[in-house]
Amino acid sequence: MNELLVFVCDGAPVRGEIVSISTAWQAVLERRNDPPAVRRILGDFVGAATLLCASLKFDGTLIIQAQSKGPIALLVVECKSDLSMRATVKLSVDPSEIAPNASLGELLDATGSGRLVITLDPSEREPGQPPYQGIVALQEQYGSTIKPVSSAAEAIGIYMQKSEQLETRIWLASSDTHVGGLLLQRMPDSGGHAHLDAQNAAEGWTRIQTLGETITNDELLTLPPETILRRLFLEESNENGVRSFPARQIRFSCRCSRNKVADVLRMLGEEEVQGILAEQGMVETICEFCAKPYRFDAVDCLQVFKTDLLSDATRPPSSGH
Q: What is the Cα–Cα distance from 223 to 292, expressed in whole angstroms?
């Protein structure tokens, strides 16, 4: 299962999504060797990114970044509007130091420094137009007490609340083989739900949330989206109507390329690159998302800095990538 199912409720101003990811998630993990707690958090954010990306109104990319001075220094999940995704994590400690049951707060906000950044980057931005970016702290304030968030779902909820988006509820679960998620959003009472008065709309939103709260991690990780939809909302469907749309496929895809590595070398500067060549005889790098190696020898690096033709600067090497 690598599917995302979108549905709408006729008797409540609610749009929902259910996601189930298996082989695409396993493709992320087979390129990594992260501790169990890190895999769990990364999986939850993969589910969140997929759910959020499905509602994009443009062709482009949604990027979730979590940054901190804790054991997880950086977590990145990228999901394109066609639901192709990739993900990576950088640790600041040895993996053996991370407890199997470590929480998100312990790994991403141990010192109160955690930040969640969500970027919406249209493919066809106007020149000079920056992508939209929302930033929230990975803490929640309860009166005078500030506590770190306990889960990716809570972190996404804070982001949605702070960015003044539609009211949103999200449930996430992940294992070594599957990622699952459920998202509910309250839609404006106008448009397709104009037939509902304010009281019925509010009651409908509460009713759908109550049904959503009955979902279990086991169901999210083992059942197809269509089955989850039927189990959760059978009575709602019979009484008020629930409509689903054709399932969309999710896949792992990395966009790294030799051209992009050449661009990075240019940003480093010729002097620094020559220093690496003098020390190591070759510039080598590995994509942090897919683990693909790239190698540039002295001739390759010379072309990177001396030619105006990108195709010449990134000619295939005699061996490697």
A: 33
Residues 266 and 166 in one domain: no
Q: Is residue 289 part of a domain?
A: yes
Nearest to 49 by CA among 167, 153, 136: 153
Cα(110)–Cα(99) distance, integer angstroms: 14
Q: Which of 211, 235, 252 lies at the terminal end of a domain, its last residue? A: 252
Same domain, 163 and 46: yes
Residues 103 and 143 in one domain: yes
- In sequence order, what DSSP letters do the residues of 56-86 get, joined into one string? -SSSEEEEEEEE-SSSEEEEEEEEETTSEEE
User: pTM of this prediction?
Assistant: 0.87
Q: In total, how many domains does the chain have? A: 2
Domain that holds residue 142: 2-252
CATH number of the domain that 38 lies in?
3.55.30.10
Residues 145 and 231 in one domain: yes
Q: Is residue 318 included in any domain, yes or no?
A: no
Q: Which helix (H) or strand (E) element contains residue 36?
A: helix 36-53
Domain-embedded: residue 321 = no
SS3 258: helix
Tens-binned pLDDT, residue by residue, of the chain (321 aa): 899 999 999 999 999 999 999 999 999 999 888 999 999 999 999 999 999 999 888 899 999 999 998 899 999 999 999 999 999 999 999 999 999 999 998 999 877 888 999 999 998 888 888 888 999 888 877 777 778 888 999 999 888 888 766 789 999 999 999 999 999 999 886 555 656 788 888 999 999 999 999 999 999 999 999 999 999 999 999 999 999 999 999 999 999 999 899 989 989 999 999 999 999 999 999 999 998 999 999 999 988 888 654 444 445 554 445
How far is residue 42's CA from residue 1's CA, in Å, rounded to a whole number? 19
The amino acid sitting at 72 is I
